[in-house]
Known about the structure:
Strand order of the largest sheet: 5-6-4-9-10
Structural class: alpha+beta
Strand content: 25-35%
Order of helices and strands: HEEEHHEHHEEHEEEHE
Distance between the termini: 51 Å
Shape: elongated
Number of strands: 10
Radius of gyration: 25 Å
Oligomer: single chain
Helix content: 40-55%
Amino acid sequence: ILNSDTSKDPEQTAQEIMSELRDKGYWQGEVLNRKRSGEAFWCLVNITRFEHQEYGLVWVSIHQDITEKKQIEHRVWHQANYDSLTQLPNRNLLTERLDQEIKLSRRNKQSFALLFLDLDHFKNFNDTLGHSVGDQILLQAAQRIQQCIRESDTAARLGGDEFIILLPQIENPVFIEHICQKFLDSISHPMIVNGEKIFITASIGVASMTSADRDVHMLLDDADKALFRAKAQGRNQTAVA
Length: 241
């Protein structure tokens, strides 16, 4: 057995299984195992203890390969939580991560930032150049956003040309200014689509978790209002809630 929980050490998993076998006499669960060829696969395992007249205490283990079932479950989960075009987290996964970050912020009394990034005049590009070109612009924008963030950050696409970036553990507000300018500079660099240069800019609204009374919807609303101000001030810039 490799593991039944990919977040745990395999030895810890084995110890937990043995403990339950001693206490209850049986164990059932899904584990990640490995074939003789070295290929990993998922299987449903049932282990039962019973007394045999001739051999005494006997353990019977039944394994069922459920790799295909796990793959289907993963595809369904991925489709429900990731944007099909950019492969960034969608609103569902963003909301879940943002809710977790709010709880961590309240417990640890540590601030974080939420950035609402929107491409300026994207509808004009989409309408005049076509949706296939619009999709290429969105893909390149998503790639540039990902290149600017830290491993601990989350970049998500809400839909259309709207992106949200969650920046946890912000100790210095100057970092927010720096990363926002990094996004603006990266997006404004010419994009090459079908051999042609396309120039597009972005606007950013910033909301920060600085008090315990904010929830997911409040923070998104704050960032959206700040984004509106950034666009009203001329676009290609940042406004803070």
